[in-house]
Amino acid sequence: MGTADMGLLARARVATRLPAQDLERARRFYSEKLGLEPVDERPGGLLYRCGGAEFALFQSAGASPGTFTQMAWQVDDIDSVVALLTRRGVVFEVVDLPGLRTGEDGIAEIEGNYPSKGARGERAAWFRDSEGNMLGIGEPVHQS
Known about the structure:
The chain is of the alpha+beta class. It is built from three helices and ten strands. It is globular and about 45 Å long.
């Protein structure tokens, strides 16, 4: 790889792919619970756009283990987003690990995340979609 080729991926847009054993069930979840509609579809796949990024759900015989965050959204007001999604029936994960614990509101306070964003930490919450994919929501906590 020549010097001119270095950084090609750094300039590329990232597009997340999430498996779905039942694509129609997943479409309903993303529409009814998250308020998202696909911008494009093909047999076996749904494409979504959020904030200039893309993610796709694809028909898969395999199942996600749902043991780690596979995709997350960065929001400006996590309290409002969690409250809205909870009203729509989204169930947030309870996390109780050393150094990482969600409060009664389903939101964890994470110190030290994202100093490159001018943040001193992050507030985060996690939930699973209808297919078992672990999804997250985060809000950087900026220096005050």
